[in-house]
Amino acid sequence: MNVPDLSPRMEKVLSFVPQNEEVVADVGCDHAYVSIALVKRNIAKNVIAMDVRKGPLEIAKKNVDEYGLGSEVELRLSDGLTALSPREVNAIVIAGMGGLLVKKILTNGQNILKCECPPDLILGPQSDICEVRKYLHDINYHIVKEAMLIDEGKYYTVIHASYGGNEHYDNSEDYVYGRCNIEEGSDVFISFLKKESDTYKDVLKGLKASNSQNERTLKRIKELESLIDTNKRAYKRCLHEM
User: Fold this and answer.
1) Can you tell me the distance from the alpha carbon of 241 to that of 48, in angstroms, rounded to the nearest whole number?
2) Which residue blocks in 41-165 are alpha helix, DSSP H?
3) Which of 2, 34, 177, 237 has the greatest number of beta carbons closer than 10 A?
4) Cα separation, 197 vs 128, whole angstroms
C-alpha cells in the first residue's frame, strides 16, 4: 500500500527527521499519517504515536492496522511527552500546533530532554516562533536548520534542533525570523519579509493618520516602528547588504 499523501508542510517536517532513526515520537499524531510515513519511507524503524485525545487515536489505530504496521507504530494516549520515558526515543516530532503549546510540551517534558542522550527535536510551530527559538536556547538546544514554505497560501516554519552547543543569538532578528532562514535567504523567506513589512507599514500609516493619538496608539506606533526596523535588518542580511 502506498504511503498516505501528506501536505507540503508535513512533507517538510518529514524531511527534517534524521534518517534511519531507531525510534521517533510523533506528538499530537492525530490520525498517524506522519507516523506511518516515517516507517514506510524507512526514516524510522519504529514510531511512538501519541495524542491527548482518544478519538484521533482510535482512527490512528485503524490506519496503522490498515498499513500493517501494528508492530512498528505504537499508539499511546499522552498529554505531550508524559507517556515517554527518558532515552526511549531518538527524535521527537511536534507539529501542527501553536508555539506556546509547543513550549509548554517541552517545558513539561524536561525529564525527556535532559536525559543522558537527549532526542533531536523537529518542530513546526504555527505561531510565537520567536518564543520557541528562545526557549530552545534556554534549554541548551542548538538550532541545526530551519526552512520556510508556503502551504495553501500560508507561511510555515520547520525547525530541527539538537541538544548541546550553548547557542545564543545576539541579534533580535535572528530570534524573530530565524538565523538559518536569514542566512539562506530563500525566495519564500524573502517574500514573507516583504509581505510582513508591507502589512506593518499599512497599519502604521493608518495609526499615524488617526485623529486619536492617545497613549495606547503612540505605544503601538513605536512597536510597529521597531518591528519594521527588525524586518529591514533581516531583509538586508538576506541580500548581504550588512
Assistant:
1) 46
2) 54-66, 99-108, 110-113, 129-138
3) 177
4) 18
